[in-house]
Amino acid sequence: MIRGDGNPFDPPRSLTREVRDGAPDLPFEDFEIIRSSNYLSMRIRLERCHDRAHGYIRGTIGNAHTSFRDPFVFLIHSNVDRLFAMWQYEDPASRLDPATVYGDDPGNPLWYVRRLLPWDGSGRTRPWVRPELERLVKDYQHTSIVNPPQYDTLQPVGDGPLTAYQLNELRNALDGAVALHAALPHSHDH
Fold first, then answer.
1. Is the pTM of this model over 0.70?
2. Distance of alpha carbon 61 from its chain centroid, rounded?
3. Which of 69, 132, 148, 166 is the most exposed place for a label (fewest CB within 10 A)?
4. One domain for residues 169 and 137
5. Alpha-carbon distances of 156 from 25, 91, 132, rounded to whole Å
6. pLDDT score recorded for residue 68
7. Is the same domain home to 48 and 86?
């Protein structure tokens, strides 16, 4: 359905949901995704669960061309982000590092250096066409993509070298050190 000004990204006037009875039959449990040994195996498991969730709800969200018209899509995709962050915290030394987070993907080497659409401004998706013209070129190694938000589920879930609590403490200490350094007079200032 296309609304008023003809932009398919505008909210629809109506949407449908045809939720099946019972709980969704997902091919993997959360812990199986989180404990995947490398990015490729984690991504395959996560994508299979993601796709099954869209198919479970069906209707507007079950169609790749209309799914983002249904607000429930943000619940599914927020969970994808949460599970990815939990996988990263299983081995934060390598999975929070933009240079190593994706490991080797022999099927599609260096896919992660491609620019992200529509944020790079190359498409015609709002707000990247008149009048807004906002742009920020990012690839999959950009720190805003690699470093996950803080989720309440980032508790210690495995044998990673640092727990979420320790990482949070480290972040607070680093923030404090940076603020202290900025506040202190430096010899070149005199």
1. no
2. 19
3. 132
4. no
5. 27, 11, 42
6. 82
7. yes
